[in-house]
Write a structure and sequence with these properties.
- There is one protein chain.
- This protein has a single domain, classed as Rossmann fold.
- The chain has 11 helices and 8 strands.
- It is globular.
- It is about 45% helix and about 15% strand.
- Strand 2, helix 2 and strand 3 form a beta-alpha-beta unit.
- The protein has an 8-stranded mixed beta sheet with strand order 3-2-1-4-5-6-7-8, with helices on both faces.
């Protein structure tokens, strides 16, 4: 694969995209998409951060077609309201980028619906959001769902007896579980799209190790990851480069449905987009089917119901 950059993004005029997250990787992803001509909806919890992101994107490109929509991925009612607003105001959607995330809060925290915050936000929130927006994606030409995983997923395991960390909570263990779940979801979504003939491509990506605000915003003051991020910034690649795998998955004609992309250098921690290593646990179809079933029970999100509401 050649050294793919934002210069390789095709003209996106006429294509509409939702990106979750107003800062870091999400911001750089939304900015690059807008500069390439896409209509971009930046979705996030904080209206102040959202307004700032939109203003900065418009400052980079005065012709940028970008708006902010409020969305709290840790609140199923907020996700449902977001989905209702979009379905009521538009006919279709071309790309959904499930980007926003929470990383390793030092103590166990819960979402509005009682889920462990990382599993509930990173995986369940995006699972429910994808179900909400599927009717629009089904009407979008060359529609894609891009799900963000992490190199941390390689050491993760889905513990069905402790999905909500009620028995034990370890910040990075639970973060790795949530990001492995995102990767499993991406592959299972592609399998179900193929089986049902939805025509929606599901592609996974990860940013390597980037200078985003994910670690500083989530870790405790004396957390090792925060200390390393603050004291040794040269270990992290620029956040704009960390957004490249997401952008490749969302826009490249060569991005493969059911594929997984990450940086190509130093054990996938930095570099240009390239096919990423997939651990065996992410390929387990029985685990994927069980995780999907559990997610539907927990969120009340039904993809079958979403498909039936397309017309």
């Amino acid at each position: 694969m050649t050294k793919w950059t934002t210069n390789d993004i095709p003209d996106l005029t006429g294509r509409s995209m939702v990106v979750t997250g107003t800062g870091g990787i999400g911001f750089e992803t939304a900015s690059a998409l807008a500069q390439a001509g896409a209509e971009v909806i930046v979705a996030g919890r904080n209206p102040v951060s959202g307004a700032k992101a939109v203003a900065l994107i418009r400052a980079r490109s005065q012709t940028a077609n970008v708006v902010f929509e409020q969305l709290d991925l840790a609140d199923l009612s907020s996700i449902a309201a977001f989905g209702e607003r979009l379905r009521a105001t538009r006919e279709s959607l071309h790309v959904l980028i499930n980007n926003a995330g929470v990383m390793a809060p030092p103590a166990r925290r819960l979402t509005s619906d009682g889920f462990e915050l990382q599993f509930g936000t990173n995986f369940l929130g995006h699972f429910a959001l994808t179900a909400q927006l599927l009717p629009l994606l089904l009407r979008g030409e060359d529609a894609r769902v891009v799900s963000l995983s992490s190199v941390a997923a390689n050491g993760g395991e889905v513990n069905f007896e402790n999905l909500n960390a009620e028995r034990s909570y370890k910040p990075m263990v639970n973060y790795s579980q949530s990001k492995l779940a995102c990767l499993i979801f991406a592959f299972e979504l592609q399998r179900r799209s193929d089986a049902a003939g939805w025509g929606v491509a599901s592609i996974a990506a990860h940013p390597g190790i980037s200078r985003s605000d994910l670690i500083p915003n989530s870790a405790g003051r004396w957390d090792f990851s925060r200390i390393v991020r603050t004291a040794l910034p040269f270990l992290f690649q620029p956040v704009a480069k960390g957004a490249l795998p997401s952008l490749y998955a969302a826009t490249s004609p060569n991005a493969r449905p059911g594929g997984y992309y990450g940086p190509d250098r130093l054990a996938e921690t930095r570099g240009h987009p390239s096919p990423a290593r997939i651990v065996d646990r992410a390929k387990d179809v029985e685990v994927a089917a069980r995780l999907w079933s559990e997610a539907e029970k927990m969120t009340g999100g039904s993809f079958d119901r979403a498909v039936s509401s397309k017309s």
